[in-house]
Amino acid sequence: MSIVPLQHGVRVRDDQATRLRAMLTSDDRASKPAPKDVERPRPKIITLASGKGGVGKTFTSISLATAFASSGHRTTLIDADFGAANADIMLGLAPLRRLDECFIRGFARGHTLRDIAIDSGAGFRLVPGPVGMGRPPANADRQRLLSGLSALSDTTDLALLDCSAGVGPSVLEMLAASDIAVIVLTPEPTSIADAYALVKSLVRSKGPESASKLKLLVNQASSKAEAERVHRRVSAVAKRFLGLSLPLIGSIPHDKAVKRGICDQRIVQGGKLRSSSGRAARRIAEQLSAQVKSLDIDRYTSCAMPETEDARSRLGLVLDR
Q1: Domain assignment of residue 152, yes or no
Q2: Where are the beta strands (DSSP E) in 155-307?
Q3: Is residue 250 part of a domain?
Q4: Is 277 within a domain?
């Protein structure tokens, strides 16, 4: 038998009984399963996308985020436009950290969406988008981004994803993963055609169920009647060739104040939306908020017909019937 010194001058006997008790204690600790990480609930996700650029998608995203925040929602806007992120520029911000840092660091501790989110000055948090990535994110990065939304759960009830324009894989992934997906388009013929192309790509890539959450938002409309005409045109073609109902969530009128606000980097003043476009955004946010709470989203009903006719002519791009 020997004496084994411990810290602080305390000594214990190193006999057989002591070693046996130590072994039993060690075995008992090893037999206990390690505590599992508690899975965090992710915020509700609203994704905004467009078939083409230049339709005012980022402005719409900022307006909706401001409206949600002013109504009491803890809101975070993620600028996921990997080609030309500019939400921070519109808000007059100069962020030091951006979304590409999360991709480079693998969303590790200290490099999560919550870590790089900043105050927008309009009541919501902003995750600034990447600049000069050079390539779209790989599939693994896209999945990390979507799963990384859970890191926002402590500070965010509602996450808005401002996607890149077009029909790229990242856009389709985010649309499919969202609770509500909003397609922003304008009355321009090219925008109408590309919006339908985006809907069609989503249905063919992710299945018809992924498109059941889609809503149309007509931006820069000269009147409510024009917005409704655009909606009827796209919705009729989607119904005929894809068997899909596309509800209109609302429209935002053409507003000269928007261009001035973007040039001045002051599209939101003190968290308030005072222009006619801002008031329209508030109304749309109210509808989206109600739908997020109930998730009462129109479901897909399969009544697709073979695409034997030219969808472009049905869109009215050749002959407006």
Answers
A1: yes
A2: 158-165, 180-185, 214-221, 248-253
A3: yes
A4: yes
